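--- STAGE predict ---
source: upstream dedup step, 1 unique chain passed
mode: sequence only
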Amino acid sequence: MTTAPSTTDAVIAMRQVGTRFGDHVVHAGLDLDVQRGEIFAVIGGSGSGKSTLLREMILLQKPSEGTIQVLGVALEDITDEAALALRQRWGVMFQHGGLFGSLTVLENIGLPLREHTDLADPLIDEIAHWKLSMAGLKAEVASQYPSELSGGMMKRASLARALALDPELLFLDEPTAGLDPGSAAGVDTLVRTLRDLYGLTIVMITHDLGVVAGLCDEVMVLYGGQVMEQGSAEAIFYKPSHPYTAGLLAAVPRLEGGDAPMLAIPGAPPNMAKLPAGCPFTERCVMALPQCGTVRPVLAPAVHDEHVLRACHLNIEAVTDNLQRLKAEQGVAA
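--- STAGE serialize ---
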């Protein structure tokens, strides 16, 4: 049983969400809250359940158990009419753009307006041009087709379409995946600007830890379909309280590391059809205690910071000491 986060002003609230495909467990007893106006990141390795979580938030998939509320609306047994109305209150930027190849960029951006409003075509085109500009694209891009765009331009065009209906909530699926550092930094700046100007609440699914560290307010770390820890970006990156998070951060390549070898978390991700009764990270954790494999740790406020939630039997000092050792092996100053 987990300790549920606070629901104060939560735009998204998930409680005890479980997702299974036959014997394959994707999520187990997952809780989360996304507060209004924050940029919330979900990070974790491949197969940790990030994309499935996003699909459940945007009504593309139903969990096997648990409850989900988005913008105050319960998603269980939602009617088609209510689902359509709810979808118009959020925007989604898909990982690969999701633009229609047979439509120009301007037509792609204007499509939600044509589908869901009675606005005249000239006004829709005017709004689409405005959204194009908001996304940082030049006016001449409007007449191009998706196949003619670079990776960075594709991401921005997809973002412009996600903003077409002036959403309260924005979902970003791997917004910087496949981009060079300069383009990724541009998307990072754009997202922050949009949040600050329009008061958006943003949920980001990403592998890009650099973007998370520089952009996000709150970070949730997933492993084996369970939450390992959750807290502010500053807390997660500067004082991780779970061995998996510490190992994940230590594995990031460092320019200041000299010739030191890159570190990797030992072992392989867990078999999701045969998860241990305890912590799913047990078999890869170099600090695992006897109870780690048999007793599932409770997600609860950390002793060192009540605003950080962690699911770990180890004390924070042991995790910190191990992170410092990993940094020393990598040649990084503590």
